[in-house]
Design a protein that fits this description.
heterodimer, A: 268 residues, elongated, B: 571 residues, alpha/beta, nine-stranded mixed β-sheet, 18 helices, 33% helix, 22% strand, globular
Chain lengths: 268, 571
């Protein structure tokens, strides 16, 4: 295991997409200390901002990185990793697990925006809260998260699972507006409440909301109540209103399940 | 500064030099007969030497190009480049930033590139971007085909008035030629419609595409402009459009070419003809009509065209053909930007993925290749991808490898290309391979001549601008037909490129990114009485309809620090 103990976090954020189990595998401690990371528009060695200890594995799968502390000014942790493990003992900045293809990232604190952006595989678990655009597409792109699993134990903000094309996302807390906007495929499970616009312009995929949706969109067709629904092989107990839409999009076939409990105001 | 380029295999179609080993001498930015013994020696032994490339139709500067950059951050992310040797960093695969545009053209050995669509009202923006596009000489084509003044003068049969207005607009916008896009159609789009064929009148003005093309072709020769009218025909991209295309080609036939500079003899330049050569009635029964279109071109001498070759990439389409972009957005469902330019034109943008495995892009690829291979005279065809519409200009080396290597085409056709390419076109039966001389024609001498720039561009004769490309490919020891990838790689990153006698690229890397090219524009004079009458009318119309003042409209000289006016004189 490689342990990175953060020194003081700078005011200008650092980006460490160069530091993954893939890039560390097979390297010596000295080599790792000197690996370049971005600080502003310049490059600095990893050791500038982190105490580095331990050994990397021979392969990515055998390499584990522990970031032992708060790195709330550090971006792109685990970006593009294909195997191995990263554990962060504190909070992280934007783009944790962006474009990740495999392996496991655990953040014990909070994450800012774009966690798991364009994720293709692997698992990202955030024990605290996350910001906007969890598991969304890169700005402008219409091809979002396509595989893997994201779990957020706390609350998240706006436009999560935007343009989601596959994979699974579970939010245990509350969501602000527009979860699953432009969603095409995959599963989004929200255990808390949503303010508004669930599944706006979704064309496919499934959204399950176990909490309360304050305001629901008009572009959905009400299909009735279903009990103990099955979503991608998993049975979710309880009674749910089932909707299809968003008919703002031609030929849309998205599904939204909203718990009967507390959501009588959105049923027709 | 003097240079001597020694022992290269020189290809210069205009001077009939076909791969002969010879030296090229350069002094003070020009090609000269001989240089002193102090001249810097550039060893081109075993390498190909050609004039600098000339791109007659590309989209590299101006409002819609910039919309492409802004609304496709995912395209920028795909291709990021650090600054080189004091040059600026850049990004963008299909719509590169200004700095990267100039640098990448130069790396391929191109030294001139023409922005093919400039809304007159937005001319300043276009020239500002040129200012930040290093190395290449450039010009912009103002859009005339849906302009209210043009349509009104032509409807009234006032050809002199139309010519005077054209002369003024070219000067006011610092424009280079008469560009016509979907004549009447973009105006109809402002009314929510389009026109189909050349005899479908546009709303309100009630004038046909036929009258616009014919009238502007007459004006072009009255003004003695260097380039022919530059026509993007009606019905772009619609199955069955080849009939409209051939009818449009016939419209200016019989008008006599009258360029005041250069030696052009065509009176029509038809652009991205690949998009205009489809048969059938729908995307189900669409077939290639490239053989029919090429046959027309082979039999007629009043026309020069460019292909608009599909490169099978994910790219960004952008055109002043507003209604066509809406059709495209309806077809692929991807994000659409639309823009109206008051009284003058409009435009639209949609990303497009030309997937080799998909039927329509495969057929479009085949149609373009057929046009190249079936046009007998390389003096009539120019290499373009209508960048970035059918693919980015950075793919020119790949297009060249397809043209020079039957094997390159066969590997693609037998490999991943959808079977529609074989089933609906004749591409798999064609085995012609372009020679290096013909490649030099379609990328150098043919565009330079039809642009009216052949005195100084597109050749290596004495007196020409010292724009030279040297490629690391030996035609004596290497066979491009077999090793087409080596050819593509050599053409992508030239061994040396000289611009106006200065080395701007060495070993594929830009060495002089702060050099700026010249801005060509056309300065014509017409009868003063008519000119003043027309200006009075234009000023009145400005007060009534334009959102800008007449006095604030023309582009000031300050916008062209490297101004290169080309003269035309009204007969």
């Amino acid at each position: 295991m490689i342990t990175l103990t953060p020194k003081e976090q700078p005011e200008v954020p650092i980006e460490i997409d160069t530091i993954t189990p893939d890039s560390l595998a097979g390297k010596s401690l000295d080599e790792i200390k000197n690996m370049p990371i971005l600080h502003g528009n310049g490059q600095v060695p990893l050791a500038e901002f982190f105490e580095v200890e331990g050994d990397a594995g021979a392969t990515a799968a055998e390499t584990k990185i522990l970031i032992d502390g708060d790195v709330s000014q550090t971006k792109r942790i685990g970006q593009g990793m294909t195997a191995g493990e990263i554990t962060v003992k504190g909070s992280v900045n934007n783009y944790v697990g962006a474009e990740m293809e495999g392996g496991l990232i655990t953040v014990e604190g909070n994450a800012k925006g774009w966690a798991g952006q364009n994720m293709r595989g692997g698992e990202l678990e955030i024990l605290g809260n996350a910001g906007d655009y969890v598991g969304s597409a890169y700005r402008g792109d219409w091809r979002g998260m396509s595989g893997g699993k994201i779990t957020v134990h706390g609350d998240v903000k706006n436009e999560i699972a935007e343009y989601m094309n596959g994979g699974k996302m579970v939010i245990k807390g509350d969501v602000a507006i527009m979860p699953g906007i432009h969603m095409n495929n995959g599963v989004l499970i929200i255990e808390g409440n949503v303010i508004a616009r669930t599944g706006g312009e979704m064309a496919g995929g499934t959204i399950v909301v176990k909490g309360i949706i304050d305001e629901f969109l008009a572009g959905f067709e009400y299909l009735g109540v279903e009990k103990d629904i099955e979503v991608e092989g998993e049975v979710i107990p309880g009674a749910f209103y089932k909707f299809r839409g968003d008919y703002a999009i031609k030929g849309a076939k998205g599904t939204v399940y909203a718990a009967v409990a507390g959501n009588a105001h959105i049923a027709p | 500064m003097e240079h001597i380029i020694k022992n290269g295999f020189v290809y210069c179609p205009q001077n009939g030099v076909d791969g002969e080993k010879m030296d090229i001498c350069i002094k003070d930015g020009k090609i000269v007969e001989q240089v002193s013994s102090d001249a810097n020696v550039i060893d081109a032994d075993g390498k190909i030497v050609m004039p600098g490339g000339v791109d007659p139709h590309t989209h590299i500067a101006g409002a819609k190009v910039n919309v492409g950059r802004m609304y496709r951050p995912e395209d920028s992310k795909r291709d990021v480049e650090a600054g080189q040797s004091g040059g600026r960093a850049g990004s963008g695969f299909s719509v590169p930033s200004t700095f990267m545009t100039g640098q990448r053209y130069a790396q391929m050995g191109y030294t001139t590139a023409m922005e093919a669509a400039m809304p007159p009202l937005l001319a300043r923006h276009t020239h500002e971007e040129f200012h930040d596009t290093p190395i290449i000489d450039h010009a912009a084509y103002p859009l005339f085909g849906n302009n209210w003044f043009v349509m009104q003068y032509l409807k009234d049969g006032d050809i002199d008035g139309c010519a005077a207005y054209t002369s003024w607009l070219l000067k006011a916008t610092k424009g280079y030629t008469i560009k016509i896009v979907n004549p009447g159609g973009t105006e109809a789009w402002a009314w929510g419609g389009n026109v189909h064929g050349i005899h479908d009148p546009t709303p309100y003005f009630d004038i046909e595409s036929f009258d616009i093309i014919r009238g502007l072709a007459e004006v072009n020769e009255m003004l003695g402009l260097p380039h022919a009218i530059h026509l993007h025909c009606n019905d772009l991209g619609h199955p069955g459009n080849f009939e409209t295309t051939l009818a449009s080609f016939d419209v200016p036939k019989g008008i006599k070419a009258n360029p005041q500079t250069g030696s052009r003899d065509a009176v029509l330049y038809a652009t991205h003809v690949q998009f205009h050569s489809y048969g059938g009635t729908s995307w189900r029964d669409v077939v290639s009509e490239a053989p029919t279109v090429a046959d027309y071109i082979n039999k007629n001498d009043h026309i020069v065209f460019d292909v608009g070759q599909v490169t099978l990439d994910e790219t960004t389409t952008m055109t002043a053909d507003g209604p066509m972009e809406f059709d495209l957005h309806s077809l692929n469902g991807l994000k659409w930007a639309n823009c109206d330019v008051e009284l003058e034109t409009g435009s639209g943008l949609v990303p497009f993925i030309y997937a080799a495995r998909a039927p329509v892009p495969a057929l479009q690829w085949a149609v373009g290749i057929e046009l190249f291979l079936l046009t007998k005279d390389a003096g009539k065809v120019c290499l373009t991808t209508d960048s970035p519409n059918a693919g980015p200009f950075t793919r020119y080396p790949r297009v060249i490898s397809w043209l020079m290597s039957n094997k390159a085409r066969k590997d693609l056709i037998d490999g991943e290309l959808h079977k529609w390419a074989q089933r609906k076109s004749s591409v798999a039966t064609l085995d012609r391979e372009y020679s290096f001389l013909e490649i030099a024609q379609i990328t150098r001498s043919t565009p330079a001549k039809v642009l009216g720039l052949s005195d100084t561009k597109g050749h290596l004769g004495v007196g020409a601008d010292a724009d030279v490309a040297i490629y690391n490919f030996n035609p004596e020891t290497q066979d491009q037909s077999v090793d087409y990838r080596a050819l593509e790689s050599a053409m992508q990153h030239a061994a040396y490129v000289l611009k106006d006698g200065q080395i701007v690229v060495k070993d594929g890397t830009v060495t002089n990114p702060t050099l700026r090219g010249r801005s060509y524009w056309v300065d014509t004079s017409v009868d003063e009485t008519i000119y003043n009458e027309v200006l009075a009318n234009v000023e009145k119309t400005f007060k009534q309809y334009y959102s800008v003042n007449f006095a604030n409209y023309p582009v000031q000289d300050e916008y062209l620090p490297h101004s290169a006016p080309v003269k035309g004189v009204m007969q």
